[in-house]
Each structure stands twice: as structure tokens, then as C-alpha cells.
């Protein structure tokens, strides 16, 4: 069974997609925004995403860029009206991997597009995220390295996933508070971030034999090289 993430605010689209895919044995997880979709990827292993263009151009771009920019690269099915001129810029289709389904559409079209992308991607994805010699298990939240295996807390797991997705980029404490802890912009304490980063560093040192993988960039944030 494959797990498909659906991003839509439209109840009729939600019902249509869930019925079509559930009937074929797929699990469907529905969220209402790109932010909620990104957060869900910290805790759930998906195999494909169905994105309703009605959530808005900016949210479509944000989420699709995220899906294509990280350690994983998920196949995407975009539901969009005919003649949506912004599609070419915001959603350049990866031939043979992504699909655009023109709205209005029926369940059969959606199911066919999803299964086509899953076949092209080789089916269900592994539950382990790899980064160098480290392996992060999405299901058990275990972090394994050459020297040891440690158990991450739920927050440490989400923090690690986010740093991996943004690998090479500087991530501010404010961004982490919004994306990992789900605080509203401008709220939350940077000390909370520092405390969890410190704990995560200690566990990373255990599994790597002493390496300090999370870099602090003074007055700017953190980076996973």
C-alpha cells in the first residue's frame, strides 16, 4: 500500500481524491496548506503528493520546491484548471515522473495519474533517510551511525528532518520555531531552539564518534553542511 499526501482546502476535491485512491488500496492523508504539508513529512512517510492548485500559486510553488529540493524527491500530481498560465513557471513537469490532471476531473483520472507516478518512481519509498554515513529511520526515529545508534525525541526528529531538507542553507531560529515547533511568526524563544540543537549535537557526536555536524553561524542561525 502506498501513502499519498493530498493538499487541498476544497471539501469536494478531498472527497473525490480520498474515495478514488482508497478504493485502490492507497492511504490518503489530507492537509490544508503547504506549511501543514511540509510539517507532516517530518512524521509520515509518503510515496507521492496530490496538490490542488486552488491552494494558491505561492503555496503550490513553496511545497513543490520543497518536495524536489530535499533528500527525497517525491512524484507530484497537480490538479489544475485548463489554461493556468502560471503553471509553466511554477510547476515545470518532470516527464515520466510528475503529472498534471486538468480540472474538472473524475476519480479515475486522478487514480490513473497517481499510479502512473508511483510506477515511474519505483513504488513505495524506503523508511530511512540517508545523509552521509548516517541513517534516520522515519518510523522508529532512530539515528544510526558508524559508532552507535541513538533514539531521537519527536522534536529532535522533526528538527533533524528540517535541517536535512534545508541542508547547506542557513536556517534561523525564527524559521525553526515556525516550521518545527509551529509557533506563529515572531513568537517562541530562541533559547528553546538552542537547547534542542545542543541536545541534537550531543546525540550526533555519539553516532559519529565525535563529529559536530550542526554548524552555528553567528547571529544568523544553523546549518547542516
From TrEMBL:
Gene3D superfamilies tied to this protein: 3.40.50.2300, Winged helix-like DNA-binding domain superfamily/Winged helix DNA-binding domain
Leader sequence segment: none
Domain Response regulatory: 3-118
Coiled coil stretches, renumbered: none
A biological process from GO: regulation of DNA-templated transcription
UniProt key word Transcription regulation: yes
Cellular-component GO terms for this entry: cytosol; protein-DNA complex
Pfam families linked: Trans_reg_C
GO MF annotation terms: phosphorelay response regulator activity; transcription cis-regulatory region binding
InterPro entries per record: CheY-like_superfamily, OmpR/PhoB-type_DNA-bd, Sig_transdc_resp-reg_C-effctor, Sig_transdc_resp-reg_receiver, WalR-like, WH-like_DNA-bd_sf
CDD domains: trans_reg_C
The OmpR/PhoB-type domain, residue ranges: 126-225
Name recorded for this polypeptide: OmpR/PhoB-type domain-containing protein
Native organism: marine sediment metagenome
